[in-house]
Structure formats: C-alpha cells, structure tokens
C-alpha cells in the first residue's frame, strides 16, 4: 500500500513538472523517454498551458513524421488535436499566427476554464470580427495580450460584460485612441496594463492614470505621443511599478516601425 502511494505521489510530481515544459518537448521528446513518461504525457493536466510554437512548417513537418500513422493533418486538425488533449482544463492559450478561424472557434468552445489568452497580429488581422463574440465563452479570462488589434474597443466592451475576474491587459505595436482608453478605464479590476511601443496621446494617458485606481503595473516605455515629466510621475504615484522611458512626443512614422522591437511585450503571466 505504501509503495502504491509513493508511486502515485511520484506520478503527481511528474505531471506537475512536465506540465511546465514547452509544447514541442511534450509532443516530441517526453513520450519517448519511458512508458511512465508516455502515460503522464497523456494526462490533461500536462496540457493546461497551450503555448503553440510559431514556426508552422517546422512543427507540422515534425508532427507528421512522429504521428504519421494517424494520417494527414491540416493546421486546423493539428491545433484541435492539441486543444483536445487538455480535456477542457486549459487555463493558458497562446495561439500562433497560422491558427485558422475553425481552430480559434474550436478553442473557444473547448477551453471554458481559460484565464490567459494571447492572440498574434496575423490572426487578429484575419479574424478580428469574430473575436468579440468569442470572448463571452471565456468567462474566466483574467489576462489578455494582443498585437495590433483593430477592434480593441469592442473586445474590451465584451470583456467588461463577461469577464468579471479580468485584471491584466497587454497591447503592443498599436494605436490607442481616446475611445479605446475609455474602454480600458471602464474595466473595474484592471491591475496590470502594458502598452509598450504603442501610440497614445498625453491626454489619453492622463485618463488612464486618473481612472485606473487599482493599477499595480503600468508599462508605457517606447511609446509615441507624449514625453515623460514630473506631472505624469505625480499622477502615477499610486502605481507600484510605473515603467516610463524612451517615450517621445512624435517621430516619423516609418522610423517608428523600423525601430520597434516586436519582442518588447511584457510577459506578466
């Protein structure tokens, strides 16, 4: 009996550890270590964090080679098969640029426990119109990271209506105008706000500083549209972590995009 309990404890620890490894390792390495690791790799708890690799051809080719007995796989089938492994327990989902509309809709249906979501630029450009309606299916959503969203105001409105535990927003390489700022301020529990590398006017920034009273982190480094000064620092005095640096009032449009570092988004989850 003690031996059995020890085995079960060891398996629980292994599930906890393997649930932290990258997806490609969980697919292509872990199952082939030994039988017990293969068994653990099938546990839905190992698939609560679905962080898809961003290199479509490489990943798909390797997936086909390893799982060739299954038959031909489309991108949609590949993403759906991974989402299915979580057995509706997934709490974090980082989708790749090559994600299809069908796979996005499937993920919305099969990830009701989702807390963290990241949507890349290419996916947002193709499927921006359906994102707001999908938000209602992620009622447990707490954190969202978007790259160049074209309908941020509408997305935030749906979050305000359906996601009562939402507290973290990251928007990168985008333009944040007054109506979108109003939508941000309307989020009642916003604590972490990352707008690094965006265009935002000074008056809009003041709206955020005055309206978001629960902010614990605000990252507005490398922004265009304002310059940091003592007044902004004073308005931000209630924020534990206020990241202000390298922001400029204006710059040539092409220079802005050439100098922007697409990897500068703040990983707060």
UniProtKB/TrEMBL annotation:
Gene3D superfamilies: 1.20.1280.50, Ribonuclease Inhibitor. It comes from the Eukaryota. InterPro entries: F-box-like_dom_sf, LRR_dom_sf. This is F-box/LRR-repeat protein. It comes from Vitis rotundifolia (Muscadine grape).
């Amino acid at each position: 009996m003690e031996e059995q309990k020890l085995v079960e404890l060891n398996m629980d620890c292994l599930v906890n550890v393997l649930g932290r490894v990258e997806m490609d390792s969980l697919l292509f390495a872990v199952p082939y270590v030994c039988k017990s690791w293969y068994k653990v790799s099938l546990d839905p708890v190992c698939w609560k964090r679905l962080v898809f690799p961003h290199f479509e051809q490489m990943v798909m080719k390797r997936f086909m080679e390893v799982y060739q007995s299954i038959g031909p796989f489309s991108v949609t089938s590949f993403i759906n098969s991974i989402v299915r492994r979580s057995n509706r327990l997934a709490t974090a989902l980082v989708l790749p640029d090559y994600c299809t509309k069908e796979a996005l809709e499937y993920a919305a249906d099969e990830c009701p426990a989702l807390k963290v979501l990241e949507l890349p630029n290419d996916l947002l450009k193709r499927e921006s119109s359906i994102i707001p309606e999908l938000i209602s299916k992620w009622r447990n959503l707490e954190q969202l990271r978007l790259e160049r969203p074209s309908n941020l105001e509408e997305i935030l409105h749906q979050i305000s209506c359906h996601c009562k535990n939402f507290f973290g927003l990251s928007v990168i390489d985008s333009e944040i105008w007054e109506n979108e700022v109003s939508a941000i301020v309307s989020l009642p529990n916003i604590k972490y706000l990352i707008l690094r590398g965006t265009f935002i006017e000074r008056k809009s920034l003041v709206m955020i500083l005055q309206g978001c009273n629960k902010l614990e982190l605000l990252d507005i480094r490398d922004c265009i549209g304002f310059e940091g000064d003592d007044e902004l620092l004073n308005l931000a005095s209630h924020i534990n972590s206020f990241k202000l640096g390298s922001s400029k009032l204006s710059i040539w449009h092409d220079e802005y995009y050439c100098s922007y570092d697409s990897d500068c988004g703040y990983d707060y989850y």
